[in-house]
Amino acid sequence: MVHFVGAGPGAPDLITRRGARLLEEAQCVIYAGSLVNPALLALTREGAAIYNSAHMTLEQVLAVMEEQDRLGHDTVRLHTGDPCLYGAIREQMDALDKLGIAWDDTPGVSSFCAAAASAGEEYTLPGVSQTVIITRMAGRTPVPAGQDIASLAAHGATMVIFLSAGLLDGLQEELLKGAYDAETPAALVYKASWPEEKVVRCPLGRLAQTGRDQGIDRTALVLVGPFLARSYDRSLLYDPGFATGYREASR
Ligand code: SAH
């Protein structure tokens, strides 16, 4: 059987207990390169076969999974954060189905959640943003029509941009075509939850320059939106005047 497991954002104690158990038990682990903290591999059992998928094609990954399954072994496919975001798991799951190999998926803490925690922020502030747009810049991997940064930025909502720290000049330009302006707050979160983590804030108009100044060009998320200004309405849910199914209004 193949277990897809979310490794979490980096800190080895941010993997789930289920993920850690599967990692401890598997005879084979295929991990997603440098984004997975090597400390997690210390959990694997002695003699486990360990592969770094950064050096492998999809066909090679599948060949290892097939061979291990034939031996009656379990493989953990360890992806960073949560496998459902930019994990290229669909193609693996579909190929495993065709091969008749059973699989399951254990979620993990995505880096977009770790980045909010590191920055001490809430993405969904009442009266400011109730929407989080998770996306990436088109680079060597294109994005489908209608999902370009400028179109998504037209909402003025909270944006979390993956896989784009090496494209900050273009990203800044595209974001400024939307509802944000040069003073809209932005942040770069580098390696959230790793010892070398950095959280750097700047106005959107200085995003690319800030990336250069800080030497950040990979393994970072770009956060943009008025939520970073921390000016908001208080929540209705916890307002004394607001009745809910669990609490009477007290004034
Ligand atoms: N599935 C992963 C994302 C994989 S794509 C998740 O849920 O987080 C790889 C990109 O994720 C990186 O280029 C970077 O933009 C982001 N990323 C992954 N780990 C990160 C971390 N600890 N801190 C900041 N960004 C991270």
Number of strands: 10
The largest pleated sheet is described as: 5 strands, parallel
Distance between the termini: 57 Å
Helical content class? 25-40%
List the secondary-structure elements in sequence, H or E.
EHEEHEHEHEHEHEEHE
Shape: globular
Report the structural category. alpha/beta
Instruction: Note the total helix count.
Output: 7
Average of per-residue pLDDT values = 96
Strand order of the largest sheet: 3-2-4-1-5
* Poorly predicted regions: none
Strand % is 15-25%
- Attached small molecules: S-adenosyl-L-homocysteine
Task: Please state the CA-atom Rg, rounded to the nearest Å.
Answer: 21 Å
